[in-house]
Amino acid sequence: MKRTELKALVMMVVATVYALAASAQIPQGYYDALKGKKGAELKTAVHNIIKEATVLSYGKGKAATWWGFYLTDNDNGYVIDRYSPEKVEFGAWGESCSSMNIEHSFPKSWWGGEQRQAYKDLYNLMPSDAKANSTKSNYGMGVVTKATYDNGVIKVGTGDSGKKLWQPYPEWQGDFARAYLYMATCYQDYAWVKDGLNSLETGDYPTLQKWASDLYIKWAKQDPVSDLEAKRNNIVYSIQGNRNPFIDFPNLMEYIWGDSISYEFDPATTVVTKQVVPENSMMCIYLASYKDTDGGCTIETTLHPKEGAEVWERTSSYGWKGTGAIKEGSNKYATKYAAESSVVTPEIDLGGYKEATVSFSHAVNYAQNPSEKLSVEVRCEGKTTKLEGFIWPTGDSWSFVDSGDIDLSAWAGKKINIVFHYTSTTSESPTWEVRDIALTGVKGNAATAIGSVAEGTQGTFDPTQPYTVYDLSGRVVTGDAQHGVYVVKQGKNIFKVMR
Prior knowledge:
The structure is a single chain. The chain contains ten helices and 27 strands. The chain is α+β, with helices and mostly antiparallel strands. It is globular. The termini are close together. Mean pLDDT is 88; it is low at 1-23 and 447-457.
């Protein structure tokens, strides 16, 4: 909003602005295919809904497991460890924590250890104390009657059958039970081997041995879904695009393995877990490793380097690669062309977020000053804004650098596209590679950025001094204002204004 526009105010009153609770709902229609099914048919219907997930790469780094744990298992900067009482602080986002492992709750050896989807699935992966992880080994989960290891959170030993088992303490038993029910359903088409056959049987139904499904149902009832577990389900869904239905519907397990297998399931009438995501929860909004996928991006070309030639291509080695230089015939060096083209992400919805940041990894070569020919932009409501203040590569190397976090909070509550805009000339044609991107946000209505008026701070608005303008939904107004009511924050004071 232009400063001069607020000088002609028709009305000004002090206003208090309240934050709205943020929530994450099950997508409309997500579970519709379950209606009317029961037993084995219901289990397969669940499998078909959740079987495909966009899993992170395994390990550390951006868009990898430890990056995900930072979102899913973070308690005010400390790791939530369901296997140990040890308290470990997170380091840099995406880095692994010392003395900790990535633990497969449902052991990877049960399907032979191949790095298939189940190997990387966050519903099966948890950060774990290294000693607890190694002691747990690849044993099944059950009741330990003779413990050889007990750290106050899990026990490891033997059960009544003499088989090696591990057992979580009561506060986590329901969480792990629902994770095992998910794994036995999502991956019911896997062939189980070795020790996995103590808990599982190969085949779509029942997949779990009878003793196992009975026990996990019992534990799930005794330890109902907590807010923490529901929150994790929503965060993993924001990353992978699939949900754990045994968290969403606490009674679903009874219709597949329990006392209701003769009754038809109806997701519209059964008990549903509260879908609230606490204020200030950090979520993944858009994530793509461009080496693996195009991320739903489109190409917009204003000027081709030459007829039939494209600026951008996606490769499995580098991600999105843009250049206006083309190697022709037997020429040793590429010919430089004038070109202009953009990679544009799909529309990204920042509705329900009060803060948002984006970061990406990129490399630039053959550029004296990369930011002169290249730019990263936000497209919103027909306007394009060039982003500033992030890290550019030096322009003479194939080494990837991280942009650092770029604040997108000015667009909180709106729908945007991120644009990687490339230009070249006949004298300079850089090569720009964009390997990955991560856009995260903090849940909450954007109005929370305004705050509230404390009693006794009702000053007088001074349009000559700095201030911030918001619309009534709490979004920052960055362009020209239309006629209507706005909220202005100046120092500790908040005013409602009419233009």
